């Protein structure tokens, strides 16, 4: 049932409708209607009134009433721009970036984390199959794996853990991370950082969450002008190589109250030090007005001790699962993860 006029004009609804008007929907090729009404309400953290208004205003969906289904990324992106801190995506994003509001010396202070990573096949009837899990490499930034154990019988070789015959994998352990303050010396690299941040701030590209395979579909993201950390790092890599810089991309995780996947560009700077170039965290600090002075500059070359790196390029999988009754490789990142430490 469509909401009443009074409901649609309700002040609580208007920010959601504006976020929907600005939304770049997932392309049909990458849209997955898998979130039901209860899941949507929980993700958005909103009243039925708001969800009904979004449906009436045309948020992508299938079905109706209690049988309605939504795309997760479309819901999340509306939430990110709704201004509602009761939504899971926006509350989580604000929680992630709050470290930027602390004293600058805390950005690089060594930290230890108790980690738990759970991976499970999306197919609920999966009888087992094989997992290939790349292990983290905190030593890249001066940290170390203190211990990391797998609940399932496994074999580890060349930094890759293999599990056979299980539909799920659980890793637990303790990891130390370190940061460093290393501003960019390369004027070209700094210019690329500034230009990318400007494109995100002025709307030439819109920061949005997206389907993992869309991230590596260069033509699609360039056409619809959306960007996340993976798209950003791959795009900057192409630009930097064209400028003659030596660069690479890297996947990792941001550790804290929330444990979230992340990707960034690294530049071999004029002092022969590899340095992260990360306009996305700079953007989030500006959007949420949570950063100390100097944080944007910090994102251009320095390493926060909340970054846990992998020796995996942006867009490449951290874990793969071959399901014997499924439709191929499971190529998303770690799911259901948690990290606890001196955060």
How far the N terminus sits from the C terminus, by CA atoms, comes to 46 Å
Mean pLDDT: 91
- How many strands? 18
Q: Work out the helicity level.
A: 25-40%
Radius of gyration: 21 Å
- How large is the share of residues in beta strands? 25-35%
Largest sheet features: 5 strands, antiparallel
Order of helices and strands: HHEHHEEHHEEEEEEHEHHEHEEEHHEEEE
Q: Structural class of the secondary elements?
A: alpha+beta
How would you sum up the global shape?
globular
Annotation field: number of helices: 12
Uncertain parts = 1-8, 328-338
Give the strand order, joined by hyphens, for the main sheet. 7-8-5-16-17
What are the key terms here?
343 residues, five-stranded antiparallel β-sheet, four-stranded antiparallel β-sheet, 12 helices, 18 strands
What does this structure look like?
The protein is of the alpha+beta class. Helices cover 30% and strands 27% of the residues. It has 12 helices and 18 strands. The strands form 5 sheets. Strands 7-8-5-16-17 form a 5-stranded antiparallel sheet, with no helix packed on it. α7 (187-201) crosses α10. 41% of the residues are buried. Residues 1-8 and 328-338 have low confidence and may be disordered.
């Amino acid at each position: 049932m469509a909401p009443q006029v009074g409901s649609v004009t309700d002040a609580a609804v208007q920010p959601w409708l504006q976020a929907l008007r600005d939304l770049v929907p997932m392309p049909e090729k990458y849209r997955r209607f898998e979130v039901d009404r209860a899941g949507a309400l929980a993700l958005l953290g909103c009243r039925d009134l708001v969800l009904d208004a979004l449906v009436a205003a045309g948020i992508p969906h299938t079905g109706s009433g209690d049988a309605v289904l939504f795309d997760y990324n479309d819901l999340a992106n509306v939430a990110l721009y709704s201004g509602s801190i009761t939504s899971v995506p926006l509350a989580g994003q604000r929680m992630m970036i709050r470290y930027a509001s602390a004293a600058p010396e805390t950005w690089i202070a060594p930290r230890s984390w108790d980690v738990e990573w759970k991976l499970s096949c999306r197919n609920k009837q999966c009888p087992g199959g094989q997992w290939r899990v790349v292990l983290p490499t905190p030593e890249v930034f001066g940290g170390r794996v203190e211990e990391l154990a797998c609940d399932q019988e496994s074999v580890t070789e060349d930094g890759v853990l293999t599990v056979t015959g299980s539909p799920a994998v659980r890793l637990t352990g303790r990891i130390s991370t370190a940061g460093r303050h290393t501003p960019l010396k390369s004027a070209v690299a700094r210019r690329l950082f500034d230009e990318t941040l400007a494109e995100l701030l002025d709307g030439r590209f819109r920061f949005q969450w997206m389907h993992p395979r869309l991230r590596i579909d260069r033509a699609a993201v360039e056409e619809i002008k959306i960007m996340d950390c993976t798209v950003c790092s791959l795009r900057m890599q192409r630009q930097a190589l064209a400028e003659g810089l030596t660069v690479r991309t890297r996947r990792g995780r941001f550790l804290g109250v929330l444990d979230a996947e992340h990707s960034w560009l690294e530049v071999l700077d004029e002092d022969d030090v590899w340095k992260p170039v990360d306009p996305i965290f700079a953007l989030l600090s500006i959007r949420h007005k949570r950063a100390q002075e100097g944080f944007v500059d910090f994102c251009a070359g320095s390493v926060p001790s909340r970054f846990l790196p992998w020796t995996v390029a942006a867009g490449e999988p951290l874990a793969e699962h071959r399901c014997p009754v499924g439709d191929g490789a499971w190529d998303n990142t770690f799911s259901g993860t948690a990290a606890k430490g001196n955060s």
